[in-house]
Amino acid sequence: MAQATSPPEVVKEDERTRRGYSSDAAGLGNLRAGAFVAPALLLIAAFLVFPALWVLYLGLTNYRLTGAAAAEPQFVGLANLLDAVSNPTFWNSTWLTLQFVLGSAVIGQVVLGFSIAWMLRDRAGPLKRLVEGLVILAWILPSAVVSFLWVALLDRDGGTLNALLGIPGFPWLLDHPMLSIIVFNTWRGTAFSMMLYGAALGNVPPSHLESARLAGASGWQQLRDVVFPHIRGHILTNLLLISLWTFNDFSPFLITAGGPDGRSEVLAVHVYKVALQSGELGYGAAVSTIILLINLVVAVFYLRLLRSKK
Amino acid sequence: MTRFVLGRIGFSTLIAVLLAFFTIPLLWLVTAPFTSDPSYEVKVPDFTWDNFQAVVEHPYALPSLYNSLILSVGTAVLVVLLAALAAYALSRVRLPGRDALLYALLLLSSIITGTAAMVPLFQLAVELNLIDSQLGLILILTGGLLPAAIFMLKDFMDSTPKSYEESARVFGASPLQIVRHVVVPVVRPGLATIAVWSLANVWGNFLMPYLLLSDVEKQPAAVITYTLYTEGGQANLSMLSTFGLLYSIPVVLMYLFVSKKYGFRFHGGIKR
């Protein structure tokens, strides 16, 4: 499930309140503050930071799940990374991941989420509650359940989709595996964007929209000149978070298992397959390292954009 | 006038398409459990209770829901407690390197929680003797959720007025007393958000319990779902659909409760 978080606080705090008495209102002092933070940091260090560093190390070894290299892994330096970038399967997975992120997160979830929020912005009552409730339901149901629902929906013989379209026997998961998981992930994740834009649109001053309307601006012009400038920060935050989540999402595995023939093997699935199914832990960790780097680049890119206009 | 009519028609069509898109995948979950011998096809159910009978008789199905409850509640309590203390201290005292630390951890947590960390977490759990320990799993899950929780809560704490704390301090309250009696009541909606978010997160988590709990009596519902096969190796659809429904109901109830009580939307947490 998704996490709701905010972008870095870019605005500099007022120097005076930072040092002054009022910022430490409860009289905590650095020592007690440290004691308050310590238990959380301890758990984070043990179960988040350490595994991350360990992945970096593993990527430099030939560690395997079984066999001789499992007992005494050798240090192989950058060999795994070089293997990965010369491996067509890796590039195929990277390309599929790009399609997955652009298709289901950037286009699917953002456009659909914003459209729903925009259509329902001035409404109240049962219709709004029904639409929002259903969208949120898709988001909060456990992924084990949801993936079975989509396997049932897309099943070639008894599936509801084929029954509705009148094309029994059409194998969606075999013929269009990427399209299937892109639409699935759009369905699954739209709620987050919808709620975020719903909250953002509430912050657009109605008077600005009213003046634009009176000046004769069309619907699209109102969006472009009044709404988007106001919610620019929200859009970028939203894009950053859902891009990262989609990039690292494992649920395509539960629907297509990366197949057929690796045609829906996004990077998260690729890592699982090489590391745990083939047992090449070192190589898998190297691919994880590359994923970490790509994520970092994406995050820095968005944060730059966010900062640029502040 | 025609423009208005066209607009209404367009709006209604769009809403209808949306409703269909979000409803159709759910149909199977509400029909199959009440159908005898269901297939992947959505049929009008014949309202049998046999499938529920079978789930109740399954030795691990209902206990696994209880395991899911222990894991989610345990993690949520720990996340709320530790995140609240940390977020409060970080919001009120400027420790050196605070912001850089927070963003680094947040980025890390959104990346490392999935497949990338599987191998090291497994090795770590073996070394620390935490395999097959629900407490160990709770600690690991808590570690993964804490950065984002601290981040969200710090936003709440930043936007609460400090004057209450100052007055409490003038009257001689200790910092822990101030946190308990002044800060917690003020940020209660934030704490509720974090609690619900952690509960839902752990309730649906498949990968970590699958990796770290091999004892079938300790496994949560997410893992048990994938063991529901017939003797022929086919997915046991009557069990799967019925168990899936039972497994989903608590999340739906929680959503209804939260949206009734607080309105299910972002309080703070997200800002420009």
From TrEMBL, chain A:
<keyword id="KW-0813">Transport</keyword>
<keyword id="KW-0812">Transmembrane</keyword>
<feature type="transmembrane region" description="Helical">
    <location>
        <begin position="165"/>
        <end position="187"/>
    </location>
</feature>
<feature type="transmembrane region" description="Helical">
    <location>
        <begin position="36"/>
        <end position="57"/>
    </location>
</feature>
<dbReference type="InterPro" id="IPR035906">
    <property type="entry name" value="MetI-like_sf"/>
</dbReference>
<feature type="transmembrane region" description="Helical">
    <location>
        <begin position="96"/>
        <end position="118"/>
    </location>
</feature>
<feature type="transmembrane region" description="Helical">
    <location>
        <begin position="235"/>
        <end position="255"/>
    </location>
</feature>
<dbReference type="Pfam" id="PF00528">
    <property type="entry name" value="BPD_transp_1"/>
</dbReference>
<dbReference type="GO" id="GO:0055085">
    <property type="term" value="P:transmembrane transport"/>
</dbReference>
<protein>
    <submittedName>
        <fullName>Sugar ABC transporter permease</fullName>
    </submittedName>
</protein>
<dbReference type="InterPro" id="IPR000515">
    <property type="entry name" value="MetI-like"/>
</dbReference>
<comment type="similarity">
    <text>Belongs to the binding-protein-dependent transport system permease family.</text>
</comment>
<feature type="domain" description="ABC transmembrane type-1">
    <location>
        <begin position="95"/>
        <end position="302"/>
    </location>
</feature>
<keyword id="KW-1003">Cell membrane</keyword>
<dbReference type="GO" id="GO:0005886">
    <property type="term" value="C:plasma membrane"/>
</dbReference>
<keyword id="KW-1133">Transmembrane helix</keyword>
<feature type="transmembrane region" description="Helical">
    <location>
        <begin position="130"/>
        <end position="153"/>
    </location>
</feature>
<feature type="transmembrane region" description="Helical">
    <location>
        <begin position="281"/>
        <end position="303"/>
    </location>
</feature>
<keyword id="KW-0472">Membrane</keyword>
UniProtKB/TrEMBL annotation, chain B:
<comment type="similarity">
    <text>Belongs to the binding-protein-dependent transport system permease family.</text>
</comment>
<dbReference type="InterPro" id="IPR050901">
    <property type="entry name" value="BP-dep_ABC_trans_perm"/>
</dbReference>
<dbReference type="GO" id="GO:0055085">
    <property type="term" value="P:transmembrane transport"/>
</dbReference>
<feature type="transmembrane region" description="Helical">
    <location>
        <begin position="102"/>
        <end position="122"/>
    </location>
</feature>
<feature type="transmembrane region" description="Helical">
    <location>
        <begin position="237"/>
        <end position="258"/>
    </location>
</feature>
<dbReference type="InterPro" id="IPR035906">
    <property type="entry name" value="MetI-like_sf"/>
</dbReference>
<keyword id="KW-0472">Membrane</keyword>
<keyword id="KW-0812">Transmembrane</keyword>
<dbReference type="GO" id="GO:0005886">
    <property type="term" value="C:plasma membrane"/>
</dbReference>
<protein>
    <submittedName>
        <fullName>Carbohydrate ABC transporter permease</fullName>
    </submittedName>
</protein>
<feature type="transmembrane region" description="Helical">
    <location>
        <begin position="190"/>
        <end position="212"/>
    </location>
</feature>
<keyword id="KW-1133">Transmembrane helix</keyword>
<dbReference type="Pfam" id="PF00528">
    <property type="entry name" value="BPD_transp_1"/>
</dbReference>
<feature type="domain" description="ABC transmembrane type-1">
    <location>
        <begin position="65"/>
        <end position="258"/>
    </location>
</feature>
<keyword id="KW-1003">Cell membrane</keyword>
<dbReference type="InterPro" id="IPR000515">
    <property type="entry name" value="MetI-like"/>
</dbReference>
<feature type="transmembrane region" description="Helical">
    <location>
        <begin position="9"/>
        <end position="30"/>
    </location>
</feature>
<keyword id="KW-0813">Transport</keyword>
<feature type="transmembrane region" description="Helical">
    <location>
        <begin position="69"/>
        <end position="90"/>
    </location>
</feature>
<feature type="transmembrane region" description="Helical">
    <location>
        <begin position="134"/>
        <end position="153"/>
    </location>
</feature>
